[in-house]
């Protein structure tokens, strides 16, 4: 690499860091390693809070809730509380006691002025109570259920809490955490953002809480076993809603949308970032995925939407609640399909001269053994019709000439358009499934077909439609990208990062507190990954294995611009 090329790489590196953080990398690292209460470190998070738009929303919600100007005045503003909240998540300990210690003994006059703290004296316990009351002003605006969080709820108290549910307050929390997350996504340098191809993964993960899990939804007439009365039971199996197994855990579930690299096998093409989130009780996934994707779509235009990777939970959702809204956003999906039951049939829909099999459209004359390939492969070992893996993959490959191909992304009303393959009776067999006889010269009614959500018979097709043929090479490559959301969950939960996986650090109770913590942890994690992506890109461009200091300084220790 020539000196001029090296200078260009370093100049780009500095520009990216300034766009993302306001500092060149060396200065940013120094600030990140400074005391958690240093002014510049507070300003990193204060600038995000200020630009996110959440403060105006909180003020508006509070005005709408306020019945009069009577009552105790808050010691801290919404801005002060949220900056304290985020800076302590970044520091790895967001417990009330840790925040109280900061307020009592660790702030300087400069940081107190930046936070807008009042000139009050008091013990650490007094600051604990001041912070708790101030944070509760936010939580009460976003807590959907009215229930006493100081004790375990009786059956009657739980029923009353269920009846008190407020969808408006639930939406307030969704707005709050997603505004903060979007503020970090907007820190991506413009030229990196411009490379994004629109691929995302969607998944749900446990936000565990301390204590015994509550009874399942079938036992709503029982007293609660956890002080967090509205938390649910989580199981790794099925829909994640625990039914009473001893391994079930108490907690909430966060559904997250995560950007993935632009193509398989190229992790350096785009950073893995949380772009949207919603939190709900475990297993209550009917609307969560759609809500999370809608918040993602608020930041990314239709031209920035391409593929969505999910596990087999999401194809099982009601088409009106998930698959159709996703199609209307412009996404094509890549997912697995669940194990079939005996009553299941391989064909899950027909339209004109096509049949829907395993999420793709094929000519209706495709031989039956190819139609039933997945069903036959997944049969019980005692079933004589079961086929082995080699036979299965051989049959899948033989489907290719019958594939009806999609034409671009879905339209805004959720309509899909396709075109038929070329009929070649000399090379391929075509069969009439009704009679079992070979069709010598299949005749297509037309060259294209449309799958429309306005036609009821087409909805079962839309429910399972996906971009690639099941188990094809392309399917394996893209479906494997779903692991990026698992990687994202690791970063969120590991104690070396934001430590969201440690319920002991989230002992405060209630949906609002747990959701706020999860959303802010995602925002903190995003900023770390944006910086890591920028630094790794510079390291790769320089041909280095690690980032070394290539900057020169003048006699006054000021950085000299790259030549």
Report a brief summary of the structure.
With 563 residues, the protein is an alpha+beta fold. Helices cover 41% and strands 12% of the residues.
Give the tags.
single chain; 563 residues; 6-stranded mixed beta sheet; 6-stranded antiparallel beta sheet; 20 helices; 41% helix; Transposase
Question: Describe it for me?
Answer:
This is Transposase. It contains 20 helices and 14 strands. The protein has helices spanning 3-21, 25-32, 39-52, 54-65, 78-91, 96-106, 109-115, 124-142, 155-163, 167-185, 190-193, 288-299, 323-329, 368-371, 373-377, 389-398, 459-464, 473-479, 483-493, 511-542, and strands at residues 200-208, 232-234, 249-259, 274-280, 307-309, 332-334, 347-351, 354-357, 360-363, 403-406, 416-419, 448-451, 552-553, 559-560. A hairpin with a 2-residue loop joins strand 8 (354-357) and strand 9 (360-363). The radius of gyration is 27 Å and the shape is globular. The mean pLDDT is 92.
Indicate the topology.
Layout: H1 3-21, H2 25-32, H3 39-52, H4 54-65, H5 78-91, H6 96-106, H7 109-115, H8 124-142, H9 155-163, H10 167-185, H11 190-193, E1 200-208, E2 232-234, E3 249-259, E4 274-280, H12 288-299, E5 307-309, H13 323-329, E6 332-334, E7 347-351, E8 354-357, E9 360-363, H14 368-371, H15 373-377, H16 389-398, E10 403-406, E11 416-419, E12 448-451, H17 459-464, H18 473-479, H19 483-493, H20 511-542, E13 552-553, E14 559-560
């Amino acid at each position: 690499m020539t000196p001029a090329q090296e200078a260009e790489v370093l100049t780009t590196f500095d520009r990216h860091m300034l766009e993302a953080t306001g500092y060149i990398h060396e200065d940013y690292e120094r600030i990140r390693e400074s005391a958690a209460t240093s002014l510049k470190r507070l300003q990193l998070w204060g600038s995000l809070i200020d630009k996110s738009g959440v403060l105006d929303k909180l003020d508006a919600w509070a005005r709408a809730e306020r019945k009069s100007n009577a009552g105790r005045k808050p010691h801290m503003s919404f801005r002060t509380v949220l900056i304290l909240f985020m800076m302590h998540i970044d520091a790895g300990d967001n417990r009330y006691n840790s925040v109280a210690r900061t307020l009592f003994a660790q702030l300087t006059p400069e940081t107190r002025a930046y936070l807008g703290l009042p000139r009050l004296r008091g013990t650490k316990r007094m600051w604990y109570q001041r912070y708790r009351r101030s944070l509760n002003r936010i939580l009460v605006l976003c807590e959907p259920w009215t229930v006493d969080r100081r004790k375990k709820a009786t059956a009657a108290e739980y029923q009353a809490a269920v009846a008190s549910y407020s969808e408006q307050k639930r939406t307030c929390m969704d707005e709050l955490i997603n505004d903060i997350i979007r503020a970090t996504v907007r820190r991506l340098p413009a030229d990196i953002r411009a490379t994004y191809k629109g691929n995302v993964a969607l998944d749900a993960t446990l936000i565990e809480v301390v204590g015994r899990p509550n009874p399942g939804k079938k036992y709503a007439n029982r007293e609660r076993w956890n002080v967090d009365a509205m938390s649910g039971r989580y199981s790794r199996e099925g829909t994640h809603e625990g039914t009473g197994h001893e391994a079930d855990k108490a907690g909430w579930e966060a559904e997250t949308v995560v950007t993935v690299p632009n193509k398989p096998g190229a992790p350096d093409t785009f950073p893995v970032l949380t772009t949207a989130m919603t939190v709900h009780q475990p297993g209550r996934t009917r609307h969560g995925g759609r809500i999370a994707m809608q918040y993602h779509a608020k930041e990314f235009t239709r031209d920035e939407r391409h593929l969505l990777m999910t596990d087999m939970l999401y194809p099982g959702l009601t088409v009106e609640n998930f698959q159709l809204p996703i199609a209307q956003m412009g996404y094509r999906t890549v997912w697995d399909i669940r194990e079939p039951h005996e009553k299941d049939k391989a064909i899950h829909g027909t339209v004109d001269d096509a049949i829907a099999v395993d999420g793709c459209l094929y000519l209706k004359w495709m031989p039956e053994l190819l139609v039933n390939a997945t069903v036959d492969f997944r049969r019980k070992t005692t079933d004589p019709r079961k086929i082995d893996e080699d036979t299965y993959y051989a049959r899948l490959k033989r489907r290719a000439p019958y594939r009806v191909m999609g034409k671009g992304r879905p339209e805004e009303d959720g309509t899909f358009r396709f075109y038929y393959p070329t009929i070649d009776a000399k090379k391929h067999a075509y069969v009439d499934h009704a009679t079992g006889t070979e069709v010598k010269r299949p005749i297509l009614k037309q060259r294209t077909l449309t799958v429309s959500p306005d036609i009821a018979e087409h909805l079962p097709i839309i429910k399972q439609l996906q971009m690639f043929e099941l188990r094809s090479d392309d399917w394996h490559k893209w479906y494997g990208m779903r692991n990026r959301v698992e990687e994202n969950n690791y970063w969120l939960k590991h104690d070396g990062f934001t430590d969201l996986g440690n319920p002991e650090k989230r002992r405060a109770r209630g949906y609002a507190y747990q959701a706020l913590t999860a959303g802010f942890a995602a925002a903190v994690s995003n900023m770390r990954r944006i910086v890591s992506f920028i630094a790794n890109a510079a390291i790769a461009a320089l041909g280095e294995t690690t980032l070394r200091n290539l900057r020169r300084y003048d006699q006054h220790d000021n950085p000299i611009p790259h030549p």
